[in-house]
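User: Can you help me understand a structure? I only have the sequence.
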Amino acid sequence: SCVDNFLLNTTLRQNWNSDALIQTDCCDSVTSVASFLDISIEEALVQYVNAGGALYFGFLEGKMRPYLENNIKNGNITEETIRNIGQRVLLTQFKLGFFDQHRADYPFSNASIDWNLLNSDKHRKLARDAAANSTVLLKNENNFLPLNTAHKNMSYAMIGPFANCTTCYLHDYTGTPSFVTSFYTALNNVVGTSSVVYAQGSNNTCTTSCYSGGKGHLVPCVPGDEARVMLQAAVSTAEKADITILALGLGENVEGEGCDRYNLTLPLDQQLLLTAVSKVAKSLVIVLVSAGGIDLGNNTSANAVLWQPYGGEEAGSGLMDVLFGVVSPAARLPQTIYTQSWAEQMNHNLTTSILSFDLEVGLGRTHRYLNNTQYIRHHFGFGLSYSTFQYSNLETLYNQEVITINTTVMNTG
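Assistant: Let's start by predicting it. Here is the structure, written out as tokens:
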């Protein structure tokens, strides 16, 4: 599409009369075109520019500049083409206010930013609210949550590779916060340090990198002696506590750009940790940290299960707000979480595997095409609350292409 003249010139410029800028993706589209068409990177750049490409984003800027200059000199790229691209770039900058330095609210000047606001209490509060409001309650047996004042006097075990870490709540493509409030730190802030004991329990990825050798995980690694010692320490910790919070998940070593998971379960060492702790914990709350869905299988011994999709710098504080009822969970799953058996059947052949983008093949994908509920652990839009609601007076209005839905919602909890 980056060198498709019909798409970028005929359709975008002529038919749609658009002055939108065209920019390559990183890593990047020009080199991908060269590889796909079996041409040189220089030839791919010529096709990209002549098709209307305006900005280049990638790792080869140093090579691209002389390529561009050479092809302007030899006539493969005309000055008119470059002039049109430059006009679109400047037009976009004008629209964004880049040249409005005379305005008091000029957004591109350091002088317009009160540096005292950065990382302020207001910003930390926003991060905390974001973490709390994105946490999904997946299970709450016998209304075990929220924990109340009486629970604050109990003893706690905070266990797991995601219990007391920093970057594990951030994942890839994130800035560097001044500090990160972990689950363990946040729990100490609520109930006091004397009431909380901690055990890591396992490494989150069994020390195997997703990107080792330039490839993602192909097979699960097997925990060694160190993992067994950590596991036993976690079991001993859980046995002594009234309430155990088990923080498990995936992280950028298991899921990420260019790194597909080989299954829908937790890494093997975390599976062992979950099984062992579940047998001895008096009361158990499981917190899952991931972007993709995780199938816990038929493990139903937990009193509550929550999913927090990389909560950021205040992940711990946001989670505690949910656990102790400061915030009633209202988030819903943005995806369907399948069972491991679904993945095994779908990946049985290439036609239905993860490499196929056809949503209707095999057993089907997403909440739109997968109708067999036995393969769904949690459906799209699922999420529990501490309250109950009653819906009435549902009304649907059609106005050309606009659909308006009205309903009355009553909090009955």
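Now, to help you interpret it: The chain is about 30% helix and 15% strand. The two ends are 52 Å apart (CA to CA). Let me know which part you'd like to focus on.
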